[in-house]
Amino acid sequence: MINGNYTTAAGSRVEITGDYGGIVDIAFDWVEEPMACCDCCGPFVHDGFLCWGCPRCGGGAAELRRKS
Length: 68
Known about the structure:
Layout: E1 4-7, E2 13-17, E3 23-27, E4 41-46, E5 49-53, E6 60-63, E7 65-66
Antiparallel strand pairs: 1-2, 1-7, 2-3, 4-5, 5-6
């Protein structure tokens, strides 16, 4: 993904910066994400999605949209 600010439909936010897009700041809103619970952890960006894992609910993913 290219540098910029991104959001999911539920409101989680991702900012990608750095010379090669290597700095990723994630504000994961597990309360609002429909496939998340309080045990979800390790959010990361992969192929245009914010993804997370969870031993309880199985984890999930949400599409990231670039903010204008």
